[in-house]
Amino acid sequence: MKLAEVMVWWSDAEEAPFLAGSSLPAVKVLQVMSEENIRFDYLSNSVGACFAGWREAHPRDQATYLLSIFNRMVCRDRINPLEAHNEYMQIDEYREWVELETGPFSDIHWKWAEPEKDDDEIC
């Protein structure tokens, strides 16, 4: 699915004990306006295409936000990183970044990896 059409749902740390040992996912990536979204409303957090700011944002900003949400899920809410990564792999642009190093996620990475002219003086 395309980055512009993504909804990400996940549980927070307080919900984690209730989901432990169950077959219910702690994180789910869905296409906006999918009828499946209602099945995952037990997850208390969501971001993505349902929000006006998301729809108006540049793909690079959407990618940056999703990476910050990934960090929040894993570090604050104790979501299994591999579970979150596997769900994110449904996002076309994320998958292209992982497999081919292209797209808005790659743009974020390389924006900060390119040295400035004067870096030799600093480093």
Strand content: 5-15%
Biggest beta-sheet profile: 3 strands, antiparallel
**Rg (CA only):** 16 Å
Helix content: 40-55%
Q: Ends: how far apart?
A: 41 Å
Strand segment count: 3
Order of helices and strands: EHEEHHHHHH
- Which structural class best describes the helix and strand composition? mainly alpha
Tell me what you see in this structure.
The chain has one domain (3-122). The protein is mainly alpha-helical and 123 residues long. The protein is globular, with a radius of gyration of 16 Å. The longest helix has 18 residues, at 59-76. The chain contains seven helices and three strands; from the N terminus they run βαββαααααα. The model has no long low-confidence stretch (mean pLDDT 81). Strands 2-1-3 form a three-stranded antiparallel β-sheet, with helices on one face. Helix content is 48%, strand content 11%.
Q: What is the compact description of this entry?
A:
With 123 residues, this protein is mainly alpha-helical. It has seven helices and three strands, in the order βαββαααααα. α3 (59-76) packs across α6 and α5 (92-100) packs across α6.
Which key terms come to mind for this protein?
globular, 123 residues, single chain, mainly alpha
